[in-house]
Amino acid sequence: MVCRRVLGGRAAASFTAAACAVLTFTVPCGEAVAAGQPRPQQRPMALPAANGDVLSSEPGVFHLDPLKAFKAKATAHRIMYRTTDRAGKPIAVTGTVLNPTTSPHAQRPIVAFAPGTQGLADKCAPSRQLAEGTEYEALPIKRLLDQGYAVVVTDYQGLGTPGVHTYMTREAQGRAVLDSVRAAQRLDAAHLPDAGPVALYGYSQGGGATASAAELAPTYAPELKIKGAVVGAPPADMNKVADSMDGSAYGAFFNYALSGLATAYGIDIDPYLTAHGRRVTNDLRDNLCTTQALAKYPFLNSRFLTVDGRPLTERLKRAPWDRIVADQQLGKRKPAVPVLLSHSALDDVVPQQVGKNLAADWCRRGTTVKFTGNHIPGHIAATEATSAEGIPWLADRFAGRTATKTC
């Protein structure tokens, strides 16, 4: 049995009257919801008029460790805001706006932080993990806050909101990132400039989402004053990344992509899968975040999940998947802002050549691109190089210095 209720107590005070009119929350009867914690599944009944408009907000928290011994020196607000999905349909997504307690900037910049692969289950939403102290990208987020930048972190479509997370869907991810900036600017409680300087930042899935946002911005969000984009290890070519990933230590990520793209394009993948394949896929969708998934399903190979014993990478080359994969290709559109693209030669998830090809494609279109390679072993460890290079690079962009290029 469940009780449907609008939030009560202190948390309710942080919701506008309009938000309370359109939101209800499904909570087991008698279940307490701690103040500042992410709420259970949210069901928006209506949406505001414009992309980036805030449906609701509530005070949040950003813990730096699972023991919750350390909090970031920033105010936090968990938000629900309007964006659009791949097909242009208005949807609600959640996110977190973080504002450092002190800043040297007269007009505080906002950095849209696009998170890397979190998982597909609602419990994996970055807003939840920031509160729980389990967000594995907490350090680069903290470093941005330490520079005096406000940071907004989207949960993307389907993480913390109804439906399957549309993992690796280019347009939905890019729009969610851009609309998160609009939402941060419009959130009265955050006290951020509504037309101030902005930057984009992301690694891995977040690198792809950031690249997409940079490509979409000139037409989707031309009013945003974006100064630059930091793009780390972007999965810009799905065919090449799928071939590298399927059967690897990160094989669960390929399954994520299959589920996410199938959801975005309305495809039922159950007929492709054996009973075992469906169990694995449902487990990854409903129960496991990234570290748990990699530990439980290392070297997951799709050929052991399919009814015909063939890897699903073969299907990507046939209709309708060939068109879907082509839709996700980055590099066909021109970012109007400088880009720093960082990628390790020893990346074991996204081959460095994929990043090099994206940089070359953007260069040919006239974008100012600085490509930086490194030899840090492993996809996860190389996040440090992107952070170490990206934060000083962003400081130069906000200071108005001319960006160099390697084109």
According to DSSP, the number of beta strands is: 12
What is the C-alpha radius of gyration, as a whole number of Å?
20 Å
Named at the architecture level, the CATH assignment of the largest domain is 3-Layer(aba) Sandwich
Helix content: 25-40%
CATH topology of the largest domain: Rossmann fold
Uncertain spans, ≥5 residues at pLDDT below 50? Answer: 1-42
Strand fraction? 15-25%
- Largest sheet strand order: 4-5-6-8-7-9-10-11-12
Structural class: alpha/beta
Overview of this structure, please?
By secondary structure, the chain is of the alpha/beta class. It has two domains: 47-237 and 338-398, Alpha/Beta hydrolase fold, catalytic domain (Rossmann fold, 3-Layer(aba) Sandwich); 245-327, Orthogonal Bundle (434 Repressor (Amino-terminal Domain)). Helices cover 35% and strands 19% of the residues. It is built from 14 helices and twelve strands. It has helices at 9-12, 17-22, 126-132, 138-146, 170-186, 205-220, 238-245, 251-265, 275-286, 290-296, 312-315, 321-327, 352-364, 383-398, and strands at residues 2-5, 23-28, 42-44, 54-59, 74-84, 90-100, 110-114, 150-154, 197-203, 225-232, 339-344, 369-374. It has a nine-stranded mixed beta sheet with strand order 4-5-6-8-7-9-10-11-12, sandwiched between helices. The relative contact order is 0.11.
Features:
19% strand; single chain; 407 residues; 434 Repressor (Amino-terminal Domain); three-stranded antiparallel β-sheet; 14 helices; alpha/beta; nine-stranded mixed β-sheet; Rossmann fold; globular
